[in-house]
Design brief:
Elements (H helix, E strand, L loop, with lengths): L1 H8 L3 H18 L3 H7 L4 H29 L1 H21 L3 H14 L2 H12 L5 H26 L4 H4 L1 H20 L12 H40 L3 H52 L4 H28 L6 H29 L4 H19 L12
Helix pairs in contact: 2-7, 2-8, 2-10, 3-4, 4-5, 4-6, 4-7, 4-14, 5-6, 5-7, 5-10, 7-8, 7-14, 8-12, 8-13, 11-13, 11-14, 11-15, 12-13, 12-15, 14-15
């Protein structure tokens, strides 16, 4: 309880969480209408897939740049600027009637989505090392909550009619504008550390940074691929409709939030960040194995999917915490930007590879690929040394 109070009382921490919540809310709010906007503009499913890919690629490019800008100018001005541009992007999406305008709107929105790296850097700067894992857990929880609320609000907002179909994009624009106003006018800026980088910090950066990015890419690819394939898996094996799949995904989101807020801080204090990473990867691999060999049992399949979708974000939280502890304070934005950039690339690659595996091999293929990828990531981390990431941050 004291830890939560410290976090919520840290300068700018609540505003950072509000930005994450509204960012993910706005992003997921427009996802249900994108296929219909593409069709209304004369496009097909190919253009719809390309629209999603453009968003991810622009995020991959912008995240490192925005992170470096936050190191130089601070988190607050960078975040406010990106939220203003994101507001314009959603307004453009709401008024777009051609494929060209749709792509411009999504490209702008994707580029501004790189501001999550700035938020993570702000969390790292505004928390002490003992509270860092809990802070990153709050970040993931805020993202999961916003991502869950978005489609629910879209469902309430949508009704027949071309004009109303654009309403979620207008609501998303309002969400981004509110976040910009709150952050720019009514809240204290996040604490910005001005400590110079130490020699030990430079050495830790050089030794560990690439390994953390490799693991981050692998985990992001697995997460995106699994989420993309779960619906197909449940439909083909269990005969489920979108209703049952949505219910399970809602349960996953609730479990993610609960675990990130309650379990992650305690586990990080007890086992360290490297221990938390190992536990999360172990649960994820075990869940994949259960889905490969026990998918015929519906209750086991549901439990395994929920554990898998919860364990992977825990691993991501552990990695973000590890990364924040092995870099100097004035390079947090650069580090988080690089991490978010490679994660975005992983989110592009994962669904494509696992989709091909599903079609060519069968429903169990995505989980087999995820298990092998996560096992390789765990092996790289363990093989790199007894304490590949987390413990260096506790010095």
């Amino acid at each position: 309880m004291n830890q939560r109070r410290r976090l919520l009382g840290a300068p700018g921490f609540r505003s950072l969480m509000a930005v994450v919540l509204l960012d993910s809310f706005s992003y997921s709010l427009v996802l249900p209408i994108l296929p219909f906007l593409v069709l209304a503009a004369g496009g097909s499913s190919i253009w719809g897939g390309a629209l999603v890919g453009v968003h991810a690629l622009c995020c991959a490019v912008s995240a490192p740049l925005l992170g470096r800008l936050s190191d130089r100018y601070g988190s607050r001005p960078v975040l406010v600027s990106t939220l203003i541009v994101a507001t314009f992007a959603y307004l453009l999406l709401a008024s777009a009637t051609t494929l060209a305008l749709l792509f411009v709107a999504r490209a702008l929105s994707g580029a501004m989505a790189g501001n999550l790296a700035v938020v993570q850097a702000g969390v790292a700067r505004s928390t002490d090392e003992d509270d860092r894992a809990a802070g990153m857990g709050f970040f993931t929880s805020a993202w999961a909550l916003g991502f869950t609320l978005g489609p629910a609000v879209a469902l309430l907002a949508l009704s027949p009619g071309a004009t109303v179909m654009h309403l979620p994009a207008l609501v998303a624009a309002a969400g981004s504008a509110i976040a910009a106003i709150v952050l720019g006018c009514f809240d204290r800026p996040p604490r910005e550390s001005k400590e110079p980088p130490s020699q030990s910090c430079r050495e830790k950066w050089d030794v560990h940074f690439r390994v953390v990015l490799m693991i981050t890419t692998a985990i992001a690819a697995c997460q995106a691929g699994i989420v993309a394939m779960v619906g197909f898996f449940a439909h083909d094996l269990y005969g489920w409709s979108q209703t049952e799949v949505s219910a399970v995904m809602l349960g996953c989101a609730a479990l993610i939030i609960a675990v990130q807020i309650t379990v992650v801080p305690a586990a990080s204090r007890r086992y360290g960040n490297e221990g938390l990473l190992a536990i999360a990867l172990s649960f994820a691999i075990a869940s994949c194995v259960a889905l490969i060999f026990g998918s015929g049992l519906v209750p086991l399949g549901i439990i395994a999917v929920m554990l898998l979708c919860t364990a992977i974000p825990v691993a991501q939280t552990a990695l973000s915490t590890c990364l924040s502890k092995i870099v100097a304070p004035d390079r947090q934005g650069e580090a988080m930007g690089a991490s978010n950039g490679v994660a975005a690339i992983g989110r592009v690659i994962g669904p494509v590879v696992m989709g091909l595996g599903y079609r060519m091999i069968g429903p169990s293929a995505p989980f087999a690929l995820a298990a092998l990828t996560l096992l390789a990531a765990a092996t790289v981390a363990i093989g790199f040394g007894k304490d590949p990431t987390g413990a260096v941050g506790r010095q």
